[in-house]
From TrEMBL:
Limits of the Alanine dehydrogenase/pyridine nucleotide transhydrogenase NAD(H)-binding domain: 142-292
Annotated organism of origin: Pseudalkalibacillus berkeleyi
Superkingdom of origin organism: Bacteria
InterPro entries cross-referenced by the UniProt entry: AlaDH/PNT_NAD(H)-bd (IPR007698), Dipicolinic_acid_synth_A (IPR014215), DpaA_N (IPR031629), NAD(P)-bd_dom_sf (IPR036291)
Name of the protein this chain belongs to: Dipicolinic acid synthetase subunit A
Domain Dipicolinate synthase subunit A N-terminal residue range list: 7-122
Length: 297
């Protein structure tokens, strides 16, 4: 149980509803910021504006999966209000308050670091990232079907990156009958890609590998699909960029060439928010209990 825990949930998408549901079930007291347009009420949860948040009482500050924008902007689908977190706000939080987000950026990292707050990035955990890869891949399949006029079976699918998401993407598309090639940098990843029966290539050779691809799926959060790469991609190719904003694709040049390129971070929150929310809620609950027990120790 989380009796006695005061947590503030600021913004987010439908995944946060599962987090709210789970934490209230466990008797945590919640302050909800950025949920003024949410009709549903939760027992033990209070909606309020950011300025009214009792910062000095907060044990856990829960931000959206995306963390914040480059200037601290908080995305929320349940409010039209402009919400922005600042270093000053962070510094007023309870001394042992823990900040949670899915990922981070330079601004958010600087805010939490300067304020001396513990910051846990949930998507750095293997369990969260692997579970989250399931709805990500389902959403990717949906997008490929929606935006192409050919079958996945026998298509040439290129996956960039062989991390926790890239692995699941490659394996799933191969199981659907696609011809899958995977680009990676690490030698052990090249070896594993080969062992699994996919076509491996080193990312430094990317420009030489794209001439016959039908779909390119990027999971690398850095500029990898450059104008030089795009200039060699067939015009019918669909690019789906799963990396966090701003993605790893030169979208301007792709548009100039008439190549459809879609930035699709946060797919789990769109295609399966309930499942994705439960993944986050379960891990978050475990961490909150661990943090409280540490405090008692």
């Amino acid at each position: 149980m989380l009796t006695g825990i005061n947590a503030a949930i600021i913004g987010g998408d439908a995944r946060q509803l599962e987090v709210i549901r789970k934490l209230t079930e466990l008797d945590a007291h919640l302050y909800l910021v950025g949920f003024d347009q949410l009709d549903h009420g939760f027992t033990g949860a209070t909606k309020m504006d950011l300025d009214d948040l009792p910062l000095e009482e907060i044990d856990a500050l829960i931000l959206p999966v995306s963390g914040s924008g480059p200037k601290g902007e908080i995305d929320t689908i349940f409010s039209n209000q402009k919400i922005q977190i600042t270093e000053e706000m962070m510094s007023k939080l309870k001394e042992d308050c823990t900040v949670f987000s899915g990922i981070t950026n330079d601004y958010l990292t600087a805010c939490t670091s300067s304020a001396g707050k513990k910051h846990i990035k949930l998507f750095e955990r293997d369990d969260v990232a692997i579970y989250n890869a399931i709805p990500t891949v389902e959403g990717t399949i949906m997008m490929v079907i929606q935006h192409t006029d050919f079958t996945i079976h026998q298509s040439n699918i290129m996956v960039l990156g062989f991390g926790r998401v890239g692995f699941t993407v490659a394996r799933t598309f191969a199981n659907l009958g696609a011809n899958v090639s995977v680009g990676a940098r690490r030698s052990e990843h090249i070896a594993r890609i080969t062992e699994l029966g996919f076509k491996p290539f080193h990312l430094q050779d990317l420009e030489n590998e794209v001439s016959s691809i039908d779909v390119c799926i990027n999971t690398i959060p850095a500029q990898i699909i450059t104008s030089n790469v795009i200039s060699k991609i067939p015009s019918h190719t669909l690019i789906i960029d799963l990396a966090s904003k701003p993605g790893g694709t030169d979208f301007r040049f792709a548009e100039k060439r008439g190549i459809k390129a879609l930035l699709a971070p946060g797919l789990p929150g769109i295609v399966a928010p309930k499942t994705a929310g439960k993944i986050i809620a379960n891990v978050l609950t475990q961490l909150l209990i661990e943090e409280r027990n540490k405090g008692k120790g």
